[in-house]
Design brief:
Shape: rod-shaped
Number of strands: 0
Number of helices: 5
Largest sheet: none
Helix content: over 70%
């Protein structure tokens, strides 16, 4: 007991001031560390916001891949119809008319703009 009284009696102002700073610095350090980690959890190259953005981009790319695959299948079907061993005469006739503009003497060719086909106007309606 004599020792504890002796240390308590000799404790200087500088020692109590150092103890106060230690009580303040450690919680402040931990608070800053938590804020730093919390900030980078949401922001940055690997944060949650970047992850959400990448997920949206992935969804867009998957939709684009689906469209490209569908277009590829359509083209492969058209190519298979033009193979020498299974030539489709209707397909050949369509391609000749489309690319060369050939038509018979008793035929009339009407060219239609594809954009007009998708959204007809009221003036195109026949009553």
């Amino acid at each position: 007991m004599a020792q504890s009284a002796r240390f308590g009696a000799h404790m200087s102002y500088k020692g109590t001031q150092s103890l106060r700073w230690q009580r303040f610095l450690m919680p402040a350090f931990y608070a800053l560390a938590v804020m730093y980690i919390g900030y980078h959890t949401f922001n940055g190259d690997r944060g949650l916001y970047a992850w959400v953005k990448e997920q949206r981009h992935l969804t867009e790319l998957q939709q684009e891949l689906t469209q490209v695959n569908q277009a590829q299948m359509d083209l492969q079907k058209r190519i298979s119809l033009m193979q020498p061993n299974s030539l489709d005469l209707d397909m050949l006739d369509e391609q000749v008319r489309k690319n060369i503009g050939a038509a018979g003497m008793d035929e009339m060719v009407v060219y239609i703009d594809p954009e007009q086909m998708s959204s007809p106007s009221k003036s195109d309606t026949v009553y």
